């Protein structure tokens, strides 16, 4: 994967993690999907990516509700 492709995907992943749901459960599902997708592209572990993505999105949305 080229540097430009990786940078573009990293930006897309960051934007998708900032997409909040209305409840903590929705936020976790959205984050898990973004984390798993990132893991696929980066050839990482899907479960780890989903767990990290879920936690990160819930934390972000809870700390920054005005941005969701």
Instruction: Note the total helix count.
Output: 3
- Apparent shape: globular
Radius of gyration over alpha carbons?
Answer: 12 Å
Mean pLDDT: 81
End-to-end C-alpha gap: 31 Å
Question: What sequence of helices (H) and strands (E) makes up the elements?
Answer: HHH
- Proportion of β residues? under 5%
Which runs of at least 5 residues are low in confidence (pLDDT < 50)?
none
Write the layout of secondary structure elements.
Blueprint: H1 3-17, H2 24-41, H3 46-63
Helix pairs in contact: 1-2, 2-3
Describe the structure in your own words.
- By secondary structure, this protein is an all-alpha fold.
- The protein has a domain at 21-67.
- Helix content is 75%, strand content 0%.
- Helix 1 (3-17) packs antiparallel against helix 2 (24-41) and helix 2 (24-41) packs across helix 3 (46-63).
- The longest helix is centred in the middle third of the chain and has 18 residues, at 24-41.
- The protein is globular, with a radius of gyration of 12 Å.
Short description, anyone?
The chain is mainly alpha-helical and 68 residues long.
Keywords:
3 helices, mainly alpha, globular, single chain, 68 residues
């Amino acid at each position: 994967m080229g540097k430009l492709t990786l940078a573009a995907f990293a930006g897309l992943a960051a934007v998708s993690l900032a997409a909040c749901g209305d409840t903590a459960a929705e936020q976790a599902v959205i984050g898990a999907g973004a984390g798993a997708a990132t893991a696929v592209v980066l050839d990482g572990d899907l479960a780890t990516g989903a767990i990290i993505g879920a936690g990160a999105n819930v934390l972000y949305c809870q700390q920054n509700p005005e941005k969701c």
